[in-house]
Amino acid sequence: MIYKEEESTQTNDDVIVLSQEESEETSFFSTNDTLMIEMDMRLTKQQWERMEESGKVKKRKALRDVAKYWTNGVVPYELQPGTFTSSDAAQIRAAIADYHSLTCIKFRRANGNDRRKIRITSGQGCWSNIGMLSRGQQISLARGCRRKSTILHEFGHALGMFHEQSRPDRDSYITIRFGNVLKSMAYNFNKHGNDRINTYNVPYDYHSVMHYGQTAFSMNGKPTIITKDKSKQYLIGTAKGLSFRDIKVLNLMYKCGAKCNLKAKDCPGEGFVGKNCKCLCPGSPIKICGDTSVKPDKKCNDMHGSCSYWAAKGQCNKYPGFMLKNCRRSCKACDSDASPIPIPKCVDMNKYCPHWARKKYCFHYRYKKYMKANCKKSCRMCVRGKFDK
């Protein structure tokens, strides 16, 4: 059965705040000698001491200490037994599927030989340790945290990423309204220098799944973060998945294209070399640079957070009625997926075409345009004019 994720307008920071049973500026835990900062990042004492300078925390979007990245990009993990429902587990798998498809990072089930691993638990709130720890670590997903975007966010911390608004160049992109910030939480908006931050020369990203929303740490419900680009004001903090720049940073962090002959300088614009040794450019969220068959289509979106996972599992074929209505982008069934160049031969452009044809989608009002462009063979539409009835 396909799991339907409930739609929500909450930002990730909203979810994190609501999941906490209590809120403190900083919380030392005597049982394991760790410190929580920015609501959901748990640091070891050693990490805190390395990041502290002149009484201020120096934060990095991605840790410079490469030893804290997961060895060979492999992340063993385990779920706390008897804690997560099948729907919860589906959301976790959907988040993992995105990391697998968009980066070279690989999550696998932990075994008895894994000393370094992530244990996903239902603790107090949503939080994660930062980077790889030598003795193992946790990600806490309380009941309110078990949606794909929040899970992606917490996994991002575990992989070594910090919040987007911590960058040193943030003042060129956002303004912090300290007058609206809880006084005890103002430290979360301290700006930090390039000496401690590694952005991998990737520009600031309003779309990042690691960005908090406009009212983060607000004492009165008014915005605490104002975007310099006014069109992005209601966008920050609402990402449902990894953005292009999130994906690029992770690929650079884990050197996904390091063994390729192709180099970043060979890629156009913001393009980078991915794990398959091809230049990847901004798309939905990525595409092969120069591939004009995939274009942004504002009217064609996935309506559920698990669409990419379901598509990877072949659900586009098994449940086309649901998937082509709710997961058109992941099923590559957008009108904009049609090739802009006339196809010289009578061929199908999607492996699911025969199945969709049997479901009588060739003349369905909703799918007719797509089927005409991409499923001519299965629809027997190679004769000009047959679709124009």
Kindly describe this structure:
The longest helix is centred in the N-terminal third of the chain and has 17 residues, at 86-102. With 389 residues, the protein is α/β, with parallel strands linked by helices. Mean pLDDT is 80; it is low at 1-7, 21-31, 54-59, 292-296, 337-344 and 385-389. Among the domains are: 12-164, 3-Layer(aba) Sandwich (Collagenase (Catalytic Domain)), CATH 3.40.390.10; 307-388, no CATH class. The chain contains eleven helices and 15 strands. Strand 2 (34-37) and strand 3 (41-44) form a beta hairpin. The strands form four sheets. An eight-stranded mixed beta sheet has the order 1-2-3-9-10-8-6-7. The radius of gyration is 22 Å and the shape is globular. This is Metalloendopeptidase. Residues 61-257 form the Peptidase M12A domain. Its EC number is 3.4.24.-.
